[in-house]
Amino acid sequence: MPGGQELRYPSLHDVELASLAAGGDRRAFGELVRRHGSAVRGLLRRMGASGTEADDVAQDAFLAAFEGISDYRGEGAFGGWVRKIAARQYLRRLQRERRLAALAVEAEEGVAASEIPDAAGRIDLDGALRELGAAERLCVSMCYGAGLSHGEAAEALNLPLGTVKSHVKRGLEKLRTRLAPSDGASLEGSRANG
Prior knowledge:
Layout: H1 2-8, H2 14-22, H3 26-46, H4 51-67, H5 78-96, H6 99-109, H7 125-130, H8 134-145, H9 150-157, H10 161-179, H11 184-193
Helix pairs in contact: 2-3, 3-4, 3-5, 4-5, 8-10, 9-10
């Protein structure tokens, strides 16, 4: 009764779908891709990938996840597991293209961030991330977007742990400053109008 099985996929938990996918059920894995695809692509764009590049890396990450689905034990969220795979895939791509060296030089030279206007007091996380230096954006996205520990990010980037921690700390400080309300009056005004 294949039609009945298709109807039940949306109601299954990720762990159940992963178990079915490990048994060869491609439709179960398709449901996992449907559920988590946009979050994976969003993370990759925050890490600096263009839209097309994010799509390509996400596709590679889901292929790798399908091939290694038996390694997923359900100990953490499937979404977090596949985002880690995607982040590592993107880093490998960066390394292959030798852009990591350019990112490190850019961060050391203190490239000025572009000014991104605040649209009526809304929080624009993507805009705030674009204001970070490339290395800071990458480290913050990996540690907070992909859920990697500082140590895992350091290993993936082939950077010292202290360097990754510094990039994350500076990046978070800049994000806090950028995302903080400029004054109490504008915050109160946006609450009254919103």
